[in-house]
Amino acid sequence: MSEKDYFVHETACVDAGARIGRGTKVWHFCHIMPGAEIGENCNLGQNVFVARNVKIGNNVKIQNNVSVYEGVILEDDVFCGPSMVFTNVRTPRAAYPRNTSSDYASTLVKRGASIGANATIVCGVTIGEWAFVAAGTVVTKDVPPYALVAGVPARIAGWACECGVPLKFAGNTTTCSECGKKYEKRGEATVERIA
Ligand SMILES: [Zn+2]
Q1: Most buried residue, 76, 87, 126, 154, by CB count within 10 Å?
Q2: Across the strands, what pairs with 120?
């Protein structure tokens, strides 16, 4: 067997059957379960849990104390802030266990999206490409691409560039003041990148 091309700290527990891509770093006290697939160049901070069958893309950054439960999919370039929370059962009851794969509602976090510190993502939603979930937000519905959402429950508070800078719309189009990417607003909840 060739030498590992990823890093796992000696206190982390990577179960047999988990797959980890080249250049990925798994820091102190993480636990990766069998069947989990983690892409290349990811960073899993201290005390990150990745459940059975979870799929994580490339270049994903997961900060300290995040549990990625079965049913969650993280596409490439997703950022999960410290101590943010995923769930995977809509109606949990200790007395009526719902703890098999078929009980889990799936949550999809699409490419480039950022989830701020201590936010909660209630299961069964899709967070669109490059969306930005502010710290402490509770997401209960789908989030459109490029939307900046905040509050409890989450509401659209604005829009964010792929580079992370808030977008200011005067008319229907705008240019990012930082990186020059251009966007068009096509309705109250739809923004697309046009250049
Ligand atoms: Zn920008």
Answers
A1: 154
A2: 85, 138
